[in-house]
Amino acid sequence: MSKEKLIIFDTTLRDGEQSPGASMTPEEKLRIAKALEKMKVDIIEAGFPVSSEGDFLAVQGIARAVKNSVVCGLARANDLDINRAGEALKDANAARIHTFIATSPLHMRDKLQMTPDQVFEQAIKAVKLARNFTDNVEFSPEDAGRSDLDFLCRVIEAVINAGATTINIPDTVGYNLPQQYGETIRQLIERVPNSHKAIFSTHCHNDLGMAVANSLAGVMNGARQVECSINGLGERAGNAALEEIVMAVRTRQDMLPCDVGLDTTQIMTCSKLVSGITGFAVQPNKAIVGANAFAHESGIHQDGVLKSRETYEIMRAQDVGLSSNKIVLGKLSGRSAFKARLETLNVAIDSEEELNKAFRRFKDLADKKSEIFDEDIHALVSDFKMEETFAECIKLISMKACSETGEVPQSTVTLLFDEEEKTAHATGGGLVDATFKAIEEIVASDTNLQLYSVSNVTQGTDSLGEVAVRLEKAGRIVNGQGSDTDIAIASAKAYINALNKLIAPMDRIHPQTYEGV
Ligand code: KIV
Ligand code: ZN
Predict the structure, then answer these.
(1) Is residue 209 located within the same domain as residue 352?
(2) Are 256 and 374 in the same domain?
(3) Which residues have a Cβ under 8 Å from the Cβ of 273 and sit 6 or more positions away?
(4) 35 with 119, same domain?
(5) What's the mean pLDDT when you consider all of the chain?
(6) Does the beta carbon of 172 lie inside 6 Å of ligand 1?
(7) For labelling, which of 75, 145, 383, 489 has a CA lying 20 to 30 Å from the CA of 81?
(8) What average pLDDT score do residues 177-184 get?
(9) Which has the higher per-residue pLDDT, 478 or 125?
(10) For ligand 1, what atom is nearest to the CA of residue 227?
């Protein structure tokens, strides 16, 4: 690559996981981390080790398994967080500690209740401590987008002297405009005397829909690392979407001073994996990874694309991993054809046993549906991997749901719950309502249903229906997913998946709370 490299720092597993309902198990995080490594992401922010035992284990597991990407752990600027991050990362091939403290007047006064001088000292101390574990240390002045530039310069100069090698500039609340954010990066690089000893990084939130534009403005002004996440997942409105950053850089090489080293053909696989695990569906018109991103509806556009692709397409669908040959397999396809298709789709299968299980599911599906598309395979694998994670708690054994004009819909559900088979019957406003009520008869979870949505995985009435369910209990929010050609069964699977997540213990500190600093 003749141009300078733009480092891609993925924070799906840390900032992305801070989205309400997007929490992931250590196994799910490891699956995503392996997909990110395969995509050749430079740095994977695997989590916030001090936040919970589960997240510590997730970061540790990723640090042990990932060999080709740097694995990073987040730590607030205090001894406990940094020691915990250092411990979680100690077996990594290449480890980074990312430590942060807020520098905006509002955050220092109201949240931290610290003076600027105290923050200054704390930042230096944190970086020095982190350097005892690794020489790859990133420092973030949180809420930099609303911080005083002179104070930022003072802190950044000091932390670089203390050993920080990357300086990340978070627009924590997504308040900046592109010109303003770019100017901040430019001024910092110009004014901080030792700025050449560190790489400057962007971290932009999407509250005003400008995360990607702001990040690119940062790059135009000297930043050489972008923090981003798959599908733009992240706190509130999310982070800069990795796929948008990467494809913008690749597509507009005429305008950008640097290039990325990623294998962009892995983008669709990563996007589907993350939306499958978190239950955060990708909107159809989402740039790069939305179902319509490469679809041409109007006759004029279709005609133009057929004559010359460039008339209406600025990127090739294959470059983001969309295959043109979408009908893949059918009832008569064998195990080796199925395995080959999984490999082409970059769907990770961890063992022969898992492959056999996936193949059995595939055969069941092929009995119900004559053409199996790539999307079906993604949904099918995601479904059984999800069940595997929680199999021991609540399991759907069988169900029967009936609807008839003029009659009240009803559902009978049998679950394995508390290691016992239990059956319940309920009526409801519709099949799904009756099914959820029957499940509740057994589980009595006392949760609030916050969201229920259905989408078809492919076209046609025999398509797999993918259901997402969001449940809330005592402030904790979880998402569940399920897919089946029968919507009532897909709904039951999604509801049970969410209940299983809710049952799993998860006491997690949020990084932006400040007890114990
Ligand atoms: O948005 C933010 O400020 C963060 C920091 C922890 C870097 O996520
Ligand atoms: Zn953030």
Answers:
(1) no
(2) no
(3) 31, 32, 35, 230, 378, 382
(4) yes
(5) 91
(6) yes
(7) 145
(8) 98
(9) 125
(10) 7
